[in-house]
Write a structure and sequence with these properties.
The complex is a heterodimer.
Chain A (H helix, E strand, L loop, with lengths): L14 H17 L14 H38 L3 H17 L3 E12 L19 H13 L4 E4 L2 E2 L6 E4 L2 E4 L2 E3 L3 E6 L2 H9 L5 H10 L2 E12 L12 E2 L1
Antiparallel strand pairs in A: 1-7, 1-8, 2-3, 2-7, 4-5, 5-6
Helix pairs in contact in A: 2-3
Chain B lengths: L1 H16 L7 H32 L4 H19 L4 E11 L4 H14 L3 E4 L2 E3 L5 E3 L5 E3 L2 E3 L3 E6 L2 H8 L5 H8 L4 E12 L12 E3 L1
Antiparallel strand pairs in B: 1-7, 1-8, 2-3, 2-7, 4-5, 5-6
Helix pairs in contact in B: 4-5
The chains are: A alpha+beta, B alpha+beta.
Chain lengths: 247, 209
Amino acid sequence: MAVMRQPLVRSNLTLTLMAVVVGLVLAWQLQGPRATPPVGYTPGDPRDRTVNTIEQLETEQSALKAEIARLRADLSAFQSKAAEETDRLRRLNDELDAQRAAAGLLAVRGPGVAVTLDDSNIRNIPASSDPNSFLVHEFDVRDVVNVLWLAGAEAIAVNDERIVGNTSVYCVGSTVMVNTTRLSPPYVIRAIGEPGALAETLRNPSYLSSLRQRVERYGVKFQVAPTAKMTLPAYIGGFSVRHCSIQ
Amino acid sequence: MLGVLTMAQFTTQQHMNQKRASASGVDGGLLISNLVEGNARLRQEVTDLDAQMASYRSATNQSKLQAMQDELEKLKAFNGAVEVYGPGVQVTLDGPAAVLDLQDLLNELRNAGAEALALNGQRLIASSIIEPMADGTIIIDGVAVYRPYIFAAIGDPATLETALLRPGGLLTVFSNSRQGLMVHVQQRDRLTAPVHSSKRAFQYTVPVK
């Protein structure tokens, strides 16, 4: 019997800190202007506040990402201009470009595969079945990413979030998070590389056994589409190496 | 056998209790704290980039050179292109660990905020591959590794330790429900993550500028 991994509650904060943060956010919400309650909800339903807070935070997240993208473009333009001034600066700029590409900070294009994972369409789940068997989990996404690296992928993105050195694919409750960004199904994992080799490895029965089992038994969706040309976005997020020193 | 059954029962119970896409208190709270923390990191990056831009403006060639060198070093540290050292946590995993366990633990360390990672003295980068051989030997980027599996995770030691040992986290699951699997976290003042001996170059990928 295949070992079914248990979906975990993954968060990188302590419960204490979480409680403090939630408390602060809720307190701040209570002081803030009253939003019009949506139809069907009792006024002051705590769920409204939670949903509002999540929406506000995600709006802020998008704005910050746009700001980072703009600053990185400005910086890169500035450096290219500086590179015209001396040979040494030009060589340094070339090296920076190479390291940026390796880090996932540049958008990239090339051939590859698009893998689509989605929950089963089956709606009448027998009482004897585990409803989770019909769903795509964060570990399925992670396992596909790992198999793609194994198959020789050169760059990977999940629903347009680039997989970089500090990326984790985890779940908060039942929500899949990549680069602290909330994703919703279907999960489309796109990888650049030799399409034939990538697709063949994904079909190899030695890998992804838990996923394959749920595809066959419960109708979970797992589709592989070789693609001649695709563009993956740049990673837009922070990367800290504050605690790292170079010898 | 009893252990297996108990665990299966426990797992099923966990599954049954889960609700998908609900904004229930616990899910919402966790999500909010994740978003708050993620946004704080994004703000830090904006601050760093602003500072970099400021140092470029009205800069001499010499200071431009310095600023570009600093950025290059940061990128090389992130990419595993140089050896780095720093404080962090050492996580030891021993017992019948499978490849998926090591992959999950690596993911957990990244999630906890590790800035640079090594496993049994080998640097781990974004595209690092942990795979099993037919005889059960585990191979990382082409090199065999053996028990015990010792991860070096550079970053803030207290933050890393707290995140890794939180209730409901992967390490708790390993200790509570995986018989024979031993996991131990230790704060360290100085850990080393060697250079990644990557010979992979882009063959199919073209950067878009």
